[in-house]
C-alpha cells in the first residue's frame, strides 16, 4: 500500500501520474485544456520543480509563498522550486498551459548566476503579458508540448532541453524588461519585500515579530506599522498564516506524526501546536489530516 507521501507529493512524477500525462523523466507538459485544473490540490503544497505557465482561459486565485495571486487570461506564472502554493478558488473553465520541470533536466550552468532573476520571480510570480508576449509563450508551449508528446526518439531529451533553455531566456527577458519599466520601490515597499523573503526562509523556525525586526535592523513597532500599511494585515497574521500553511502541507503530503510536525515547526510541545492549529482552522491536526 502506498504511503501518503507517495500519493500526494507534488513532484514531477506525481503530477504526471495524477493528471494522466506522459512521463518523461524530469519534465511534464499538459496537452488537454483541463488537465492542470484537475490536478490541482485543495491544500497547501510545496512545489518540487520549476513551473512556467500561461493562463489561456478562466480564473484562479491562489497563494504563492503565502501571498494571494490572481491568474487570468494573458497572465504568465513562474514558480520556483521549493515554493509553497495553495489554490483558493478555481473556475470550472480554467485552462493553463503549463510546463513543470526539474532544474536538473537542463544545464545547471544556465541558471547558476541568475540570483536577480530568481529574486524578481519570487517577488512577482505572476505577470500580465501583452498580446505579442502572450502569443510568444503559447508558441513556446506548443513547441515543447509537441516534442514532449511525440513518439520516443533518440534526440527527444536533447530537443526538449534546448527548447526549455529558449523558454527560460524568454522568461528572463520578460522579467528584466518589466523591472526596467517598473516604478522604483519606496522604502516601505523594499522593507515589505525583505520581510516576505525572511518569512519564506524562517517561518518554520521563528514566529516572533522581534526576530524579523532584528534581522531587518528595525524596531518591532516600526516593522509592524509598515507591514500593516503596505498589506492591510498585521505582521502576526502573516507569520501565523505561513505556519498554518506549512502545517497543512506537512499533514497532507507527509507521513510525519503530529509530534514530528511539532518539532519541524519549532513548537515546544505537541499540545501547544494542536491548540495553535485549532485556533486558526477550527480543527485538530489529526482531524484535518483525515478530512
Tell me briefly what this model is.
The chain is of the alpha+beta class and 291 residues long.
What does this molecule look like?
The chain has 291 residues and is of the alpha+beta class. It has 2 domains: 178 residues, Regulatory protein AraC (Jelly Rolls, Sandwich), CATH 2.60.120; 104 residues, Arc Repressor Mutant, subunit A (Orthogonal Bundle), CATH 1.10.10. The chain has 13 helices and 9 strands. The protein has a 5-stranded antiparallel beta sheet, sandwiched between helices. Strands 2-7-4-5 form a 4-stranded antiparallel beta sheet. Helix 5 packs antiparallel against helix 6 and helix 7 crosses helix 9. It is globular. The N terminus is likely disordered. It comes from Chryseobacterium pennae. Pfam families: HTH_18 (PF12833).
Keywords:
291 residues; alpha+beta; Jelly Rolls; Arc Repressor Mutant, subunit A; 2 domains; five-stranded antiparallel beta sheet; four-stranded antiparallel beta sheet; 9 strands; disordered N terminus
User: At the first level of CATH, what is the class of the largest domain?
Assistant: Mainly Beta
What's the helical proportion of residues?
40-55%
Report the CATH architecture of the largest domain: Sandwich
Number of domains: 2
Protein name: HTH araC/xylS-type domain-containing protein
InterPro entries: Homeodomain-like_sf (IPR009057), HTH-like (IPR037923), HTH_AraC (IPR018060)
Domain HTH araC/xylS-type: 193-291
Keywords: DNA-binding, Transcription, Transcription regulation
Amino acid at each position: 500500500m502506498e504511503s501518503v507521501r507517495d500519493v500526494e507529493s507534488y513532484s514531477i512524477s506525481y503530477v504526471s501520474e495524477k493528471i494522466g500525462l506522459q512521463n518523461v523523466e524530469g519534465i511534464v507538459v499538459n496537452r488537454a485544456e483541463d488537465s492542470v485544473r484537475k490536478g490541482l490540490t485543495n491544500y497547501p503544497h510545496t512545489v518540487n520543480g520549476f513551473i512556467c505557465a500561461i493562463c489561456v482561459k478562466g480564473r484562479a486565485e491562489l497563494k504563492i509563498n503565502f501571498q494571494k495571486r490572481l491568474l487570468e487570461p494573458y497572465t504568465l506564472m513562474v514558480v520556483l522550486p521549493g515554493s509553497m502554493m495553495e489554490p483558493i478558488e478555481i473556475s470550472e473553465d480554467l485552462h493553463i498551459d503549463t510546463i513543470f520541470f526539474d532544474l536538473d533536466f537542463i544545464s545547471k550552468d544556465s541558471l547558476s548566476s541568475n540570483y536577480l532573476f530568481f529574486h524578481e520571480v519570487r517577488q512577482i510570480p505572476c505577470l500580465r503579458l501583452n498580446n505579442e508576449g502572450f502569443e510568444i509563450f503559447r508558441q513556446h508551449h506548443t513547441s515543447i508540448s509537441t516534442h514532449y508528446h511525440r513518439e520516443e526518439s533518440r534526440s527527444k531529451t536533447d530537443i526538449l532541453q534546448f527548447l526549455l533553455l529558449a523558454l527560460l531566456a524568454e522568461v528572463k527577458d520578460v522579467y528584466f524588461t518589466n523591472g526596467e519599466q517598473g516604478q522604483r520601490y519606496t522604502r516601505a515597499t523594499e522593507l515589505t519585500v525583505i520581510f516576505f523573503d525572511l518569512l519564506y526562509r524562517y517561518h518554520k523556525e521563528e514566529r516572533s515579530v522581534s526576530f524579523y525586526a532584528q534581522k531587518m535592523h528595525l524596531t518591532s513597532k516600526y516593522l509592524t506599522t509598515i507591514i500593516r500599511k503596505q498589506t492591510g494585515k498585521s505582521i502576526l497574521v502573516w507569520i501565523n498564516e505561513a505556519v498554518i500553511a506549512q502545517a497543512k502541507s506537512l499533514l497532507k503530503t507527509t507521513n510525519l506524526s503530529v509530534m514530528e510536525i511539532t518539532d519541524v515547526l519549532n513548537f515546544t510541545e505537541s499540545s501547544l501546536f494542536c491548540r495553535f492549529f485549532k485556533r486558526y482552522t477550527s480543527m485538530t491536526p489529526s482531524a484535518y489530516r483525515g478530512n
